[in-house]
Amino acid sequence: MRVALFITCVNDTLFPGTGKAVVSLLRRLGCEVDFPTAQTCCGQMHVNTGYREEGVRLARRFTEVFAGYDAVVAPSGSCAAMVREQYPKLVRPGSRGAAAVAEVAPKVYELSEFLLDVLKVDDVGAYFPHRVTYHPTCHSLRGLHLGDRPTRLLQNVRGLELVPLPAADECCGFGGTFSVKNPAVSAAMGADKARSVLDTGAEVLCAADNSCLMHIGGTLGRQRTGVRVMHLAEILASTEASTKGGEAQ
Predict the structure, then answer these.
(1) 160-187, pLDDT tens digit by residue?
(2) Could you give the residue ranges of the DSSP H alpha helices within the chain?
(3) Buried-exposed string 188-213: b where 16+ CB fall within 10 A, e elsewhere
(4) Angstrom distance (rounded) from CA 180 to CA 170
(5) Region class of 37: left (phi > 0), else alpha (psi between -120 and 50), else beta
(6) Burial class of residue 9 in the structure, from the number of CB atoms within 10 Å of its CB (0-12 exposed, 13-18 middle, 19+ buried)
(7) d(C-alpha 189, C-alpha 152), whole Å
(8) SS3 content of the chain, % helix, strand, coil (to 5)
(9) Where is each Cysteine-rich domain found (predicted)?
(10) What is the rounded CA–CA span in Å between residue 247 and residue 238?
(11) Could you give the C-alpha distances from 5 to 23, 111, 159, 187, 248, in angstroms and in order?
């Protein structure tokens, strides 16, 4: 398959290793992966803060950049949900760019969706000998309805012990601009989530969105808990060879 990587703003600027992990993983599974350098923000931040017209322009740009691919894979439930769920509402039927949105948006997948629903793979040959717990981020849980897709993939990682996260369906408090507008509430929610993570005894907290991991990880780090946060893609890209080489230690 000819697949495009939609890296997303947070990953491009702060977590480039996640994008590299996606490319490594998909190539290992036989996909041809492109990275269109003209890609920009999906517009979620703009739309969520009331700048609808800017969101429309970014939606049209997105569909131009990613036209012609068999699939577009994003290491973010949040941004994938924006494209699939919000673009058809932003660019209304009959308006300029509506046909492109109708063509491209359904081909945009969060990573675990693409692996299980498109490639039909639940064992990607990963190896990660650590105790891990998984946080289902709000957009992946309520927007994309990923269900058990991420945990099915994690359960098939050799050496990995997956432990359930208490109150897993509770928001971590990040919420993009919510954390800026309501910092005290956001911090309290993050502290609650961090306590749930510590209750599991996990070495690593995993999620499908680095924005949420950044928020929870900040709390865990300030408390010097020693718990690491890792994106799902990075765990799935890990192999026995890379682990022995120190990349997944």
Answers:
(1) 999 999 999 999 878 777 777 777 888 8
(2) 9-14, 16-28, 44-48, 52-65, 77-81, 87-90, 98-104, 111-113, 138, 149-155, 178-181, 183-200, 210-222, 232-237, 240-244
(3) ebbbebbebbbebebbbbbbbbbbbb
(4) 19
(5) alpha
(6) middle
(7) 27
(8) 50, 10, 35
(9) 3-83, 132-216
(10) 8
(11) 8, 10, 28, 32, 22
Give the pair of three-digit tokens for residue 91. 């660019």
Which CA distances in Å does 200 have to 28, 62, 173, 206, 234?
A: 32, 40, 19, 13, 21
- Dig out the tokens for 185 from the structure: 């509430």
Would you say 105 and 71 are in contact if contact means Cβ atoms under 8 Å apart? Answer: no
Token pair of 243, please? 């682990």
How far is Cα 145 from Cα 179, in angstroms, rounded to an integer? 23
Structure tokens given for 179: 């954390």
